[in-house]
Amino acid sequence: MMGRFSIFVIGLSICLSICFFPEAEAQLRQNFYANVCPNVESIVRTAVTRKFQQTFVTVPGTIRLFFHDCFVDGCDASVIIASTPNNKAEKDHPDNLSLAGDGFDTVIKAKAAVDATPGCTNKVSCADILVMATRDVIALSGGPSYSVELGRLDGLSSKASSVNGKLPKASFNLDQLNAMFAANGLNQNDMIALSACHTVGFSHCNQFQNRIFNFSRSNPIDPTLNRQYAGQLQSMCPRGVDPTIAINMDPTTPRTFDNVYFQNLQQGKGLFTSDQILFTDGRSKATVNTWASNSQAFNQAFITAMTKLGRVGVKTSPANGNIRRDCGAFN
């Protein structure tokens, strides 16, 4: 009798755990909020569209915010946390200081719109809102639309020190890029597809100035750089001028999310070393050529890569995450 009672208690305990703490067993899935906040995706899309109509910087700002979040301790919105006197958060690490404020503002406004909806208040994580907002800005700027997996919790930690060595540099070669992406479960095709996010947005002169003025003693201009394009960059980023001047990363269609990024690489118009290396290195050149001529193939590869990126380091248990009331502060 006692044995049966013990089994009953254990079974009841497991049942209660599942019933009252479903997050503990949760996995990412589409329509995660169907029974909680069924219109969340349309609510977020409306807020993001409104922000997009105010400024195009919403697009690259949000995309970059998502990438920087996921590559540092997983997709948990920890990059949005503001620093306090007792904690220097991720967003204040030198590698994150150039993140556009419009990316943060997009998530904050979408979160406010969700929480203002009856039944949705404090039911949707900032991490999931960032994923949805990223998908939406990509579609709004001409890129592919796709379904997103949801169910992430917001992280409980955000430290500037955790950013060290987690984000790719503009000077990286193919081996360095592949190694960093592989550490996050992403292969070379994923890396090349995600690099195409440089088809929108801007960078600052100090990120590529070495390629146009002092590449080497015998050749001051990087020989893999298109000479006419190099001349244009020199005129926009002259020596001795403020290195924080913003330059479009895609010189051809800077406000459209498209495969022109790869066509630019074929012409020697990759802004960063880490861009142009995708074409000059034989191990990745064939992929660049394929996607330069086949936008459908690129779009599918990009959707696959974004889905995989969105799974990196997610928190789905209340032991390591929760739903923040304020995306910029811990509960």
UniProtKB/TrEMBL annotation:
Binding site for heme b: H198
Active-site residue list: H68
Pfam families linked to this entry: peroxidase
Keyword Flavoprotein: no
Primary location recorded for the protein, binned into one broad class: secreted
Protein name stated in the entry: Peroxidase
Residues given in the record as Ca(2+) 1 binding sites: D69, V72, G74, D76, S78, E90
Positions of the Plant heme peroxidase family profile domain: 27-331
Keyword match Iron: yes
Top-level class of the enzyme under EC nomenclature: oxidoreductase
Reactions catalysed, as given in the entry: 2 a phenolic donor + H2O2 = 2 a phenolic radical donor + 2 H2O
Cofactor entry: Ca(2+); heme b
Cofactor note: Binds 2 calcium ions per subunit.
Cystine pairings recorded for this chain: C37-C120, C70-C75, C126-C327, C205-C237
Compartments where located: Secreted
Enzyme nomenclature, EC number: 1.11.1.7
Superkingdom, natural source: Eukaryota
